[in-house]
What does this fold into?
Amino acid sequence: GILFLDEVAELGLDEQAMLLRAIEDKRFRALGAEKEIGSDFQLICGSNQNLKVRASQGLFRADLLARINLWDFTLPGLKDRREDIEPNLVFETERVSQQLGARVSWSAQAKQRFLEFALRAAWPGNFRDLSSAVTRMATLADGHRITLEDVNQEWAGIERDLVSDATGNDQYLSLVRKVLTAGKVSCYDLLDLKTLEAVLDVVKDSSNMAEAGRKLFAVTRLQKTNPNDSDWVRKYLARWDLNYQDCRDKLRDS
It folds into this structure.
């Protein structure tokens, strides 16, 4: 038959030795048995760690790795499979409905907002995170109908966990938090957020949008005959659904 071992990197060295013998000699001793038995099986292993690195650190047997590393496939995470999010949202909604014994539904606004967040989120736990999010919202929603408020509350909780883990400092990205909602912050990589933080710092200390543009694009503007400093800033902020005046108002107390 076929044996699938998930998270094979977590096996201890003794268990790795037993597995190696089962692969090479097709012999092993079952739990509690006094005699060895034989089995000719196909082995598939899964791991979220780099086994070659683990082997170099002495945490995974190099001879076992050589045996199991015949074919190697990389399964992309959920953040790299955006097209899978919406159909799996439907699947998870149906699954939770069966689990709760009641029909779970979404308001149109709630589903649209969740997908907006989901399509940009990091999803470190992949489908487990998506499943947990749907379960929480469906369980807590009145009448099991998920509303926009339910989605915003769920995403605020996700944002607190992810951003605090990524930064480790409540003062970090302080300007970003003044202009973006809690849920939206979690939809972007830390690199993007740090770039926005730097832009907002310039916006905060500039008297107008043109001045901010001259500071932010000091080198680029020299390559243009008629640089439009204000337009560059406007377009950058628009990527975040922000506008200059709103940002200035919210950053005024920073």
Observations:
- The beta strands are 2-5, 27-28, 37-38, 42-45, 105-106, 145-146.
- The two ends are 64 Å apart (CA to CA).
- The CA atoms of residues 18 and 143 lie 52 Å apart.
